Each structure stands twice: as C-alpha cells, then as structure tokens.
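The records we work with from here on pair a chain with its fold. These numbers are not coordinates but entries in a learned vocabulary of local backbone shapes. To see the layout at work, look at the sequence and tokens printed below:
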Amino acid sequence: MLTRKHVVAIVLIAFLLSIVIRIPNLHRPLSKHHEYLPAVVLINAISWKQAGGGYIFHYTPVMNYQNKGDKFLGNEVLTKDGNVVYLSIGPGWYMLPYFFFTIADTPVSVAGLRILNLLFGLLTLMLCILLFNSILSKENRKKNTMIVTACLVMLFSPGALWYSGNGYTHTFMMLPFAILVMMALLPMFEAANRISGARLILLFFLLLLGIYMDWFTLFIGVTAIVYSLFKLRQDRRYLLLTGIIVAGLICGVSLIFWQFASYAGFEETKQYWEGRFQINRSLPGLRKTAMLIMHYVTAYLPLLIALFLCLASSLRKGSLLSGSEKSFAVIWGGAVVLYHLNFSNWSFVHEFSVIPASPLIAFLFARYCSEINLFSRPGTVRIVMASVMLLGIAQYYYINPPGKTSLTGMRYDTYEILGKSLRNIDREHKIFMKMIEANPMIEYYAGRNLTNASDTVHAKSLMKEWGLKEAVWVEQEDFILKRIIHLKERSW
C-alpha cells in the first residue's frame, strides 16, 4: 500500500524523468510554438537591468530595450520616455524571472528561464499532492494511488511537458498560487466552523498574489463567491467569507491598475484596459469554439480520451462527486469556463489558455478511474497509466520533434542566427524590417527591437515622420539575412 512518502518519491522520480524526456528541446534556442512569451519576458528583464532596475518602471512590463534606437516604436502604449509597456496581465510573471536572475547574480538567459520554469513545475506538482490529499476522503484506501495517478498524467501530458519547460507562460506560472487559493477555500467550504480570522487573512493575501500573476485567480474568486452565497443558507458565516473574497478581488485588481498607472499614466492605463475588454468581450462562435477544442486536443489528447472513457463507464452507475471533490470541481471548473468566455478572443487564439484546466482534468481522471474500480486491478491500471503517459510523450515529440528542424521544416536556430547577425548595428539607429507579426525571439538574440515596415520607402516615410536622420533596413527572406542597408536623411 502506498504511503505519503511513496507518493512524494514517485512524483519526484517522475519529474526527473520528465526532464530527461525534455532535454532534446531544453537546450535548443528560442524558436516557434509559443516561445513568444519567454522572449518578451527575457527582453523585459534585460531592459529593466539596462535602465538600472525594475523599480525605475515601477515594475511595469516593458517590451523594448533601452537603447536610443529602440525607443518610440509606435505601437501599444508608449510612455513619456518612449517605452512600450504591456498592461494586460499582472506583472508577477515578469518580476519572478527578473528577481531570479538578480538574486542568482547570473546573466539573463534562455537556460536560466527554463530552469525557473522547471522549478515551478516541481512546485506545482508538490502542491497538487497537497491539494488532492485535502480533497479526497481520509477513509479512501485508494487515496495515495489516486494522487500519484493524477500527478503523473498531468506531468506527462503534452501541454505540461512543454509549458513547464520551454514555454514559459503566465497561465502555468500562476498555478501554484491558484492551488494555494483553493487549499485555503476548501476547508472553509467543508465546514463553516473553519472560517477563522487567520484563514481569511491568508485567503485575502493569496488572492492578491494569484491575481498578480494572472486573471485566472480572479475567476476562482468569482465562482467561489457564487458557491459561498449558496451556502449562506447553511451558515451566516459564509457572508463573511464572501466579503473577504470580494475585498481580495477588488484589492488585487486595484493593486495592478495603480501600479501600472503610476508609471504609464492613469488615463493611458484606463484606456488600455477598456480597449482590451472591448476586444475580448465578444461571445465565441463555432469557429472559435472549434479552435479551443483543438487547443485541448493539442495539450491533453491521450488524457482526455482516457477521462471520457472512465467518465462514461462511471456515470452509467450513477456516480457523482461529493464533499470537497464537488467544491473543487465546481469552483475550478467554473473558473476555467469564465476564463475562456471573458477572454474569448485571446483564449481561443492562444493554446496556453487551456493550461489552467490541467489540475482539474488530471484529478477527474484519477477520481473516475477509482470509481470503476480500476485501481483494484493493478495490471490494468498500469497498462492504462503507461498508455496515457507514453501517448502524451509521443504527442509532445510529434509537436516538438527532436533534432534541428521543427514540424514545419524550419530550423530551430533560424531566429537565433538572424538575431545575432544584427547585434553589431549601431544602437543609436532604429532597425526596420518587413515582418508578418512581431518577433521578439529575433529581438532577444539581436539585443535590439525591430520596427515593421513594408519596404524601404515605408521605412523612409517613418524616419521622416519621427525625425530620424539615420536608420537601418534589414532585408531578409524566410528569416535568412540577405543584406543590411543604411538609410540616411539625404537618401529620401
């Protein structure tokens, strides 16, 4: 019979194995498949250091370097000193790498960011052990087996293998904080006499931290409010819990707004948030819903197939969740739904929007495996577990094939080679290049920001508009450098 020590040991060994599995991708340069976010986070950390520290910007995320040629890029929100800032999400996931590199006294690097991401992956797994342990009944003799099952299938899902390794993203980095919020909430929902001053204070500050990382915790709070109001009929103390959650959410959002506004400006931040809300508030149609389903397929296909099979078999027996299991499923599941609906245009485009669902999907799989007595047949459960994990690893390798070229045939070092070829360009000069979309992966390796222009005529018109006497035009084809042209005022 598995003990708590066995659970921790198995999960630790599995985590180390997952690092070995990811080694072919961990040592490669920034390339495709959602490495946009790691690039902008690294650029921000370098930029803060170039300026003398993040406090100069009130720790507001900055999208550009501090060289003269990298200021006033003409997109997003520009501050009075010419920096482009990113105000859509709390700054916590930008600040963590910055302080990680600062405290470790190491240069900002891709390798360092991936190590930090792996450490948070391990932290998430350890917290999942505690969360699942608190959800499952003490009388459940299969409890530890269920916990191991949930942790392992989550760890070896394609989405987790990628986004807790190469693909640094706020939707993954916020998971430890969201889990801690759930661990603070569940005991109080289980029994009203557990609502105490100490628990409420802890919950308040955990909500602040979670929202500071990503908006998902905000939606955990919203669903918890609704859940708490339903319980109000049982005990009036749930009104106090509701009040604390509301206060935590308001303070969490306000903290981010005032931090950004203190640097970018009140009106600028207000207009930015209003604009983002307008963009994201539309309800999803069939096409967007199909895109979201494909994101879930990409991140969890083997696990989802196994979950649906177990769920179908279990529900035929009329099995339902109970107690803390139900509270967790309703609150976390409700938060996932609200997250997708409120950020529909963003959520349905970005694959990593489905990462917050991973603890719930993994838990439900383990829970319904138990319901159909799969754990009473050790041979069967081993086959099912091995199949889910091996298929997850195979899918991960299919999406991110080892070697020098990606699934599309593009070399992984394409952006690195182009970026490094631009490193010696005068830092006083703005760099123009034709781009389909922003490419911070190239900018990270160049140590410079690129301004999009359709051709040299367009670049010269921008130079004239911005009063630039000299600039540089980078001519490339499929991200292979052809030539560098120096543009001067007299050549207009």
Q: What stands out?
A: The longest helix spans residues 286-315. The mean pLDDT is 92.
